[in-house]
Amino acid sequence: MLFSFAVASLFFGLSTAVVSVTPAGSDTVCAGQVTLSETYIGEHNNVKVSFATCPDVGSQSRALTSRQTVTNVCGTNCFVPSGGGPNPNDCHIIADALRFNSQNIGAIFQVNTGTNNTVVMQFASCLSFFVNQDLGPIAYCRTDWAALIDFIAPNCQATQNAHGGNCVATDQRWFAQVQHA
Ligand SMILES: *[C@@H]1O[C@H](CO)[C@@H](O)[C@H](O)[C@H]1NC(C)=O
Fold first, then answer.
1. pLDDT of 7-49, one tens digit each?
2. CA nearest 93: which of 161, 45, 37?
3. CA-based nearest residue to 33, from 94, 113, 111, 115
4. How far is CA 90 from the centre of its chain?
5. Which of 37, 109, 129 is the pocket-test mutation for ligand 1 (most atoms within 8 Å of CB)?
6. 8 CA distance to ligand 1 middle (Å)
7. In this structure, are residues 86 and 125 in contact, taking their beta carbons and an 8 Å threshold?
8. Does any ligand 1 atom lie closer than 6 A to the CB of residue 115?
């Protein structure tokens, strides 16, 4: 119920929020990124997880603020122009790995602040990352991140003049992004 509500909110947000924000290059998700550690998750241990520092995320979220559509969960933005988006099937593998971890580790994950404020997940062509922009740690649902990935990936594609997108919390405390790896 909560998830379908979240996805409905996302869909509502998407219809009017297509902005031009260029995601960072293939191996990094932000300027000045420092990767602290890497591991693999999922039923087949094939989704790479990195914990990282993203020092310059503040300016990115501000750039999105004036254009995002406010929903009850987060405002979804697709990145223009079309072409070069991640394969939604690859993104779905990441989402399923999050659901697998939700069942086997726990529903909630924590994202720290400061030097360890970013979690990056990658499988094949798809990369998704979650950035905590708050002053303290954030606890978030793995299945909610999975739902975001499964919504953004297929709905921010070439047919939508897009190549990935993100969802910024209405209170700006975090955002989750989906892009080509
Ligand atoms: C980074 O934070 C995660 C939890 O989000 C934790 O599991 C990991 O050990 C931390 N890594 C470092 C280097 O602090």
1. 544 554 454 454 444 344 455 788 888 899 999 999 999 999 9
2. 45
3. 115
4. 14
5. 37
6. 32
7. yes
8. no
